[in-house]
UniProtKB/TrEMBL annotation:
<feature type="transmembrane region" description="Helical">
    <location>
        <begin position="328"/>
        <end position="345"/>
    </location>
</feature>
<keyword id="KW-1003">Cell membrane</keyword>
<protein>
    <submittedName>
        <fullName>Fucose permease</fullName>
    </submittedName>
</protein>
<dbReference type="GO" id="GO:0015535">
    <property type="term" value="F:fucose:proton symporter activity"/>
</dbReference>
<feature type="domain" description="Major facilitator superfamily (MFS) profile">
    <location>
        <begin position="24"/>
        <end position="436"/>
    </location>
</feature>
<dbReference type="Pfam" id="PF07690">
    <property type="entry name" value="MFS_1"/>
</dbReference>
<keyword id="KW-0472">Membrane</keyword>
<dbReference type="InterPro" id="IPR050375">
    <property type="entry name" value="MFS_TsgA-like"/>
</dbReference>
<feature type="transmembrane region" description="Helical">
    <location>
        <begin position="415"/>
        <end position="432"/>
    </location>
</feature>
<feature type="transmembrane region" description="Helical">
    <location>
        <begin position="112"/>
        <end position="131"/>
    </location>
</feature>
<feature type="transmembrane region" description="Helical">
    <location>
        <begin position="298"/>
        <end position="319"/>
    </location>
</feature>
<feature type="transmembrane region" description="Helical">
    <location>
        <begin position="385"/>
        <end position="403"/>
    </location>
</feature>
<feature type="transmembrane region" description="Helical">
    <location>
        <begin position="21"/>
        <end position="41"/>
    </location>
</feature>
<dbReference type="InterPro" id="IPR036259">
    <property type="entry name" value="MFS_trans_sf"/>
</dbReference>
<feature type="transmembrane region" description="Helical">
    <location>
        <begin position="61"/>
        <end position="82"/>
    </location>
</feature>
<dbReference type="InterPro" id="IPR020846">
    <property type="entry name" value="MFS_dom"/>
</dbReference>
<dbReference type="InterPro" id="IPR005275">
    <property type="entry name" value="Lfuc_symporter_FucP"/>
</dbReference>
Length: 438
């Protein structure tokens, strides 16, 4: 057992703490809504880029490919840095990349090329990969083992506020003054459209200015705060030397851990279907509701995020009274049914099916994450396990492309919602199989 002077917690050999350090836990938790804000702004950018750069539904999905591709490529390097240094170092690196990516929106808005915007989004994703790889695992370790699932669910409950803030910033700072971009450019000459596009792209800078200020404050607070190590230590037989586990050994252990890898696969599917629904909701509203404007269509995403928050709160209450897996089976079943209604109801009511799905998304990500890490019995592999769970976010890069392709080929965005419906059914199967295992 490790003890350190002038701290209120005791760290055990498995990395968990005797109690949760309140300020440190709050500080790390405040980072969670920041990546929610970045992700929700992508939904605004997709709608804007579709008009400005004249993109197909498949092409717009590459915004999410750049975003979640960054997660996939950087998660293992991030875990390596955590192993060699600390969670605090990885968080600070993540914040710095996040700041750099936001700064790249300044030259991108002036260069006015789709590729430059994708590069800026990719750099932001590098930062977010560091943050999620570190923060998600860190909060599960920052206290007693038995309350790990509760801690990550509470921290993740803050994400909807970041998502809603991102959409609101986009609604008033990017879409403000432009009720319907597609209608506004119709009939413009090439010169007029070029001038219009330049004006619109400059608006993308506005929300990122505010995000930069918040990130700088978080970076300073993290730098001056003493943080717990929360990393497992394994002593040799003489109890004098600490055993170091290589990345290869950790990967070998994890790849042969069937239940952990099944959790990684479930997370891949979940992030993919969540990204599908949220990326297409605004454009689905524009197609299915006659006369609605871009500005008004964003309201459906704002509502979605608050419903997502409500779904998290409700799940937290249910999981205190019923088993985690049983609660998640019902959430997944109802989520699948709501998406099937979205596909089959041919009226503006269908958009409310897409919105309602967010309620059932609420607890899925943190629950799969914590459940997956719980399958790692040798805790020296936890950091690498957390990295693989974050790498599974690459599902957000692939599944929306499939949904976009279905939309383009069928000519029906509504039909393309069958893709997340199938995905939610697979998530239900995952929780049913885990419930049987106990």
């Amino acid at each position: 057992m490790d003890t350190t002077k002038k701290q209120s917690w005791i760290q055990y050999a498995d990395g968990y703490l005797s109690k949760t350090p309140v300020w440190q836990y709050i500080l790390v938790s405040l980072i969670f809504p920041m990546w929610g804000m970045a992700a929700s702004l992508n939904d605004i950018l997709i709608t804007q880029f579709k008009t400005v750069f004249t993109l197909s539904d498949t092409a717009t999905a590459f915004v999410q490919s750049a975003f979640y591709g960054g997660y996939f490529l950087i998660a293992l390097p991030a875990s390596y840095i955590i192993r060699k240094t600390t969670y605090k170092s990885a968080i600070m690196i993540g914040l710095m990349f996040f700041i750099l990516g936001c700064g790249l929106f300044f030259p991108a808005s002036h260069m006015a090329t789709y590729g430059m915007f994708l590069a800026a989004i990719f750099v932001i994703a590098i930062g977010l990969s560091f943050l999620e790889t570190s923060c998600d695992t860190y909060v599960t370790m920052m206290g007693p083992k038995e309350s790990a699932n509760k801690r990550i669910n509470i921290s993740q409950t803050l994400i909807p506020f970041g998502d809603a803030a991102g959409i609101i910033l986009g609604k008033y700072l990017i879409f403000g003054g432009h009720e319907n971009m597609a209608a506004e450019v119709a009939g413009m000459s090439a010169a007029q459209k070029a001038a219009y596009n330049k004006e619109v792209l400059l608006l993308t800078l506005q929300p990122y200015k505010y995000i930069l200020l918040i990130l700088l404050v978080l970076l300073i607070l993290m730098a001056i705060t003493k943080m717990p190590l929360s990393k497992a230590t394994v002593k040799n037989e003489d109890a004098v030397a600490e055993k170091k586990t290589s990345l290869g050994e950790s990967l070998n252990y994890l790849f042969h851990n069937y239940r952990f890898m099944k959790s990684v696969g479930a997370q891949f599917i979940y992030v993919g279907i969540q990204t599908c629904v949220w990326s297409f909701t605004i454009r689905f509203a524009l197609r299915i509701i006659p006369g609605i404007t871009d500005h008004a269509a964003t309201n459906y995403m704002v509502i979605s995020y608050f419903i997502w928050f409500a779904g998290k709160l409700c799940a937290n209450w249910l999981m205190e009274r019923f088993s985690v897996t049983k609660t998640m089976v019902w959430y997944s079943l109802l989520g699948t049914l709501v998406l099937l209604l979205t596909v089959s109801v041919h009226s503006p009511i269908a958009i409310w099916g897409a919105v309602a799905t967010s309620f059932f998304f609420g607890p899925v990500y943190p629950t799969i994450y914590a459940h997956g890490l719980d399958q790692i019995k040798e805790k020296q592999h936890t950091e690498t396990g957390g990295a693989l769970m974050v790498m599974s976010l690459v599902g957000g890069a692939f599944v929306p492309v499939i949904m976009g392709r279905v939309s383009d080929l069928s000519g029906s965005m509504q039909l393309s919602f069958i893709v997340p419906a199938i995905g939610f059914a697979l998530i239900m199967w995952f929780f049913i199989s885990e419930h049987k295992r106990g």
